[in-house]
Each structure stands twice: as structure tokens, then as C-alpha cells.
């Protein structure tokens, strides 16, 4: 199958190429796409070099699927052009996520909603993906009433510029700033812009996307999203209230059997998920499982995942794998 990667030179685009190779997705021809200034550059895939082409050239080549990670405005412009040519687009930006006519997909949860007619499929926000992968099996068993989540998010979620800022600050080098404030030895309680309700766009993404993916608008969700000076992945402290009571051992058993989840929960030996251990892994790691002793039917948990992999590239490739397996790629 011909596969296009739009935004192939960026952090997530590069990771998409890596994940496609690792998972042996059947790529007969790779078509890397990037902005005009990157056209003609080369990217490496499975030991071969491929020239970056324009979007128009990529559409003319008629790939079966196009993985997009080129930002919202680019996606709004280009995704419909690819789709009109019969190419299935899996888009990693926020452009289509809350469009009621588009599916927002985490394969472990709602891939069954996909049909051959879905030509633009939205990949959720990284912080949302890891949370719902861990919560969905519990929701099915105990029904979630309310989620309170605080995130501790890697600088890689912002992109190369933020990684450079962190590394420059560590070396005492003055350079271009991705953030308004220093990030090394600091924590910034703002991800994306503030909205009229005092929450950031990232926080409201978690609220709205979670309900859409889990197909339940009754779930009450409140979020605080925070940028921290790490690079391995995102971490989340999640307090979740259920309608039904639960047994902690049963919760651990459910999670340990859930697809894409690894339980790391051994307080006696100080074993719990950390971003450095999740780095370059595709799983969602869950630990610090304990009852909230202040109210009934409520669980505290700690969720960690590599935001560039399961939070972005791997989830997109898994969607493509599902479409291929079910014969939904034309």
C-alpha cells in the first residue's frame, strides 16, 4: 500500500515513520510530505532515503492512506483535498476531533465505529488517549460518574522548539523560547491558550474528547494540564468516581487484562510508572491504584505513556492497521 506521511519532518511525523517501520505496516511506497520549504529534503525509512514532496504531488500519487501531523490549519486545508481524491486521512491535529461528522478514534475503545465512508478520521489529543485507554475497561464495569485529572506533560508535546529550549537552559545557553517562561527547574500550569471559562484549550480538549471517545456525555470531567521539564512522556494523576462500588483487586485484574495497558503497582518495592520507563513504548502504564478515602466508589490512579507514540504516532498507525485488517481502505 502507498502511504503518505504529511508533516514527515516534524517530531510526530518522524515518529510515525519509525512506528510504521517497527510494526511492519505493509508500505509498498512511502510518500513523505512537508511544507514548501522542506520539499526536496530527504527522510529515512527502513534504510532507504525518500524525497519530501508537496501535497499536490502526494495527492496525484494516490496513496491508500495519509497520516497527517502538520497542524490544524494545514489539516483543515489539505485533508479535504486528500479525502476528495479517495485517500483515507488519519489526522493528528485538533482540526477534526470535535466535528460531529468525523470519528475520533482510539482503536482499543471505538474502532468498531469506523466504516469505509470515513475518509477523515481524527486522532485524539495525547493526554486524552492515555487516560481513556486506562479508564475504558473500568467504565464498562463500574460506570464513571466524574473524573478529576491533573497532567504532567512532556516538552515533546510542544515540539522541537520546546525540546531545544529545555536543553539550552540546561546548558546555560540563550536561545529561542517555545514558552513565555523558562521550563528547566520549573513547572508551567498552562498548555495552549486560555478560554473564556478560565480553562485552557488543552484542558477542554480532555473534557470534550473523553466524552466523545467513550460515547457518554454524562461523564463529568475537570482537568488541569501542566508542562514539566521531562521528555519521556506524559503523566496524569486521575481521581475517578464510579456509580458502582469496586474491589481494588478486581480493578487491578481488569486493568492487567486490558489491551494496551500495563499495571506497575507495587508500593512496597517503590514500583510505579514513570515517563523515563514509558519512553519509546506503546503501552499505557498504570499504578498508584488506591481508594479515595474521602468519598465512596472513588479511585485514585497514576497514568503514564509516551506522548509521541501511543499519544500520537502509534495510535494513528493502529487506526490504519484496523482499517487495513477490516478491508476499509479503498
Describe what you observe in this structure:
There is one protein chain. The protein is α/β, with parallel strands linked by helices. The protein folds into two domains: 2-123 and 312-325, NAD(P)-binding Rossmann-like Domain (Rossmann fold), CATH 3.40.50; 127-307, Dihydrodipicolinate Reductase, domain 2. It has helices at residues 11-22, 55-60, 72-84, 107-110, 126-142, 160-171, 201-213, 248-257, 275-278, 309-325; strands at 2-6, 29-33, 42-45, 48-51, 65-68, 88-91, 103-104, 120-122, 144-153, 220-227, 234-242, 261-263, 284-291, 298-305. The protein has a six-stranded parallel beta sheet, sandwiched between helices. Strands 10-9-11-14-13-12 form a six-stranded mixed beta sheet.
Amino acid at each position: 500500500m502507498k502511504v503518505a506521511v504529511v508533516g514527515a519532518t516534524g517530531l510526530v511525523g518522524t515518529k510515525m515513520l519509525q512506528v510504521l517501520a517497527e510494526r511492519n505496516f505493509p508500505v509498498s511506497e512511502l510518500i513523505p510530505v512537508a511544507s514548501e520549504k522542506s520539499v526536496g529534503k530527504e527522510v529515512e525509512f527502513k534504510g532507504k532515503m525518500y524525497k519530501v514532496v508537496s501535497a499536490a504531488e502526494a495527492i496525484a500519487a494516490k496513496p491508500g492512506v495519509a497520516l497527517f501531523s502538520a497542524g490544524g490549519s494545514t489539516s483543515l486545508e489539505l485533508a479535504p483535498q486528500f479525502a476528495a481524491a479517495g485517500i483515507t486521512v488519519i489526522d493528528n491535529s485538533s482540526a477534526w476531533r470535535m466535528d460531529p461528522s468525523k470519528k475520533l478514534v482510539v482503536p482499543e475503545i471505538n474502532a468498531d465505529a469506523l466504516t469505509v465512508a470515513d475518509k477523515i478520521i481524527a486522532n485524539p489529543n495525547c493526554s486524552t488517549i492515555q487516560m481513556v485507554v486506562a479508564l475504558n475497561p473500568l467504565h464498562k464495569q463500574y460506570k464513571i460518574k466524574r473524573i478529576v485529572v491533573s497532567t504532567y506533560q512532556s516538552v515533546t508535546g510542544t515540539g522541537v522548539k520546546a525540546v531545544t529550549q529545555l536543553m539550552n537552559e540546561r546548558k546555560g545557553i540563550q536561545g529561542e523560547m517555545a514558552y513565555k517562561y523558562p521550563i528547566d527547574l520549573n513547572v508551567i500550569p498552562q498548555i495552549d491558550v486560555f478560554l473564556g471559562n478560565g480553562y485552557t484549550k488543552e484542558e477542554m480538549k480532555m473534557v470534550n474528547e473523553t466524552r466523545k471517545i467513550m460515547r457518554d456525555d454524562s461523564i463529568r470531567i475537570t482537568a488541569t494540564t501542566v508542562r514539566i521539564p521531562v521528555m519521556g512522556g506524559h503523566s496524569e494523576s486521575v481521581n475517578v468516581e464510579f456509580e458502582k462500588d469496586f474491589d481494588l483487586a478486581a480493578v487491578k485484574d481488569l486493568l492487567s487484562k486490558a489491551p494496551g495497558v500495563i499495571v506497575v503497582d507495587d508500593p512496597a518495592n517503590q514500583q510505579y510508572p514513570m515517563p523515563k520507563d514509558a519512553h519509546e513504548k506503546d503501552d499505557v502504564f498504570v499504578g498508584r491504584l488506591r481508594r479515595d478515602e474521602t468519598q465512596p466508589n472513588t479511585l485514585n490512579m497514576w497514568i503514564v505513556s509516551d506522548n509521541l507514540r501511543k499519544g500520537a504516532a502509534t495510535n494513528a498507525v493502529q487506526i490504519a492497521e484496523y482499517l487495513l485488517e477490516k478491508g476499509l481502505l479503498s
